[in-house]
């Protein structure tokens, strides 16, 4: 049996509690998971810093492509400062150029600003035209891991790429599969890739408790929320390896 770390992405204090109770080994802290995850509020960062497991804050100032200008960079640098001031363990960073390649100068500046914090290269990696070249760039950056689905929307469909880049990484950087990871397929993904950590939302669909709030636009009819039972099921599936 090999030990596999389960990272769970959450966007609320309730989700944080569910992930920890269910057996997560690390938290990716976000807001707006329905948009792929944005930077969490400083208040949530401070709450999450009390967690008994490492918490990494997503550093992404807005939805849309991972193409950031000088104003975005100022916001991201300030958000890294907030993560550090809150006492979080690390940050999740990344950026692309218009051609899809990694924006190395910007990511270097973000990584330097996050000195002393752990770092994950996020799924900006999945938009690159050449994953093998981007892998070498990620190693150069000194990030601890790459969160990736294998450059396709769902990790289960990217197994060949995930397996290849995991082999090429050769322990220099961790490859962490994510996107569409569920208790039903986590073990398959891990066996195929040899990964030692895996990322999931571990969520279930919840209907709004207040249709009137939905009618005013204050809520949505259904949303995905971190489910402690799904976290437990994911942990159990991983522990079968």
First and last CA, distance: 5 Å
Series of secondary-structure elements, N-terminal to C-terminal: EHEHEHEHEHEHEHEEHEH
Tally of helical runs: 9
Rg value: 17 Å
Strand content: 15-25%
Low-confidence stretches: none
Biggest sheet layout: 8 strands, parallel
Q: Could you estimate the helical fraction of the residues in percent?
A: 25-40%
Task: Write down the overall geometry.
Answer: globular
Major β-sheet strand ordering: 7-6-5-4-3-2-1-8
| Structure classification | alpha/beta
Number of separate strands: 10
Mean pLDDT: 96
Provide keyphrases for this structure.
241 residues, alpha/beta, two-stranded antiparallel sheet, 18% strand, globular
Task: Please explain how this structure is put together.
The chain has 241 residues and is α/β, with parallel strands linked by helices. 37% of the residues lie in helices and 18% in strands. The protein has nine helices and ten strands. It has an eight-stranded parallel β-sheet with strand order 7-6-5-4-3-2-1-8. A two-stranded antiparallel ribbon has the order 9-10. Helix 2 links the parallel strand 2 and strand 3 (55-58). Helix 1 (13-22) runs parallel beside helix 9 (228-238), helix 2 (42-48) runs parallel beside helix 3 and helix 5 packs across helix 6. It is globular, with a radius of gyration of 17 Å. The mean pLDDT is 96.
């Amino acid at each position: 049996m090999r030990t596999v770390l389960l990272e769970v992405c959450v966007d609320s204090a309730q989700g944080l509690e569910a992930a920890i109770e269910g057996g997560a080994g690390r938290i990716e802290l976000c807001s707006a998971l329905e948009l792929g995850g944005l930077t969490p509020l400083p208040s949530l960062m401070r709450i999450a810093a009390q967690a008994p497991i490492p918490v990494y804050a997503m550093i992404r100032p807005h939805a849309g492509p991972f193409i950031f200008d000088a104003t975005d960079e100022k916001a991201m640098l300030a958000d890294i400062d907030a993560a550090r001031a809150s006492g979080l363990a690390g940050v999740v960073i990344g950026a692309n150029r218009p051609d899809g390649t990694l924006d190395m100068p910007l990511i270097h500046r973000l990584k330097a600003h996050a000195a002393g914090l752990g770092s994950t290269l996020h799924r900006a990696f999945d938009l690159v035209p050449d994953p093998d070249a981007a892998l070498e760039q990620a190693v150069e950056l000194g990030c601890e891991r790459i969160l990736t689905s294998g450059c396709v929307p769902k990790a289960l469909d990217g197994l060949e790429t995930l397996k290849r880049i995991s082999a090429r990484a050769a322990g220099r950087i961790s490859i962490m599969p994510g996107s569409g990871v569920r208790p039903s397929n986590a073990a398959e993904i891990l066996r195929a890739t040899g990964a030692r950590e895996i990322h999931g939302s571990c969520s279930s669909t919840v209907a709004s408790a207040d249709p009137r709030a939905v009618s005013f636009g204050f809520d949505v009819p259904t949303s995905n929320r971190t489910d402690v039972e799904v976290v437990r099921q994911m942990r159990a599936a991983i522990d079968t390896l």
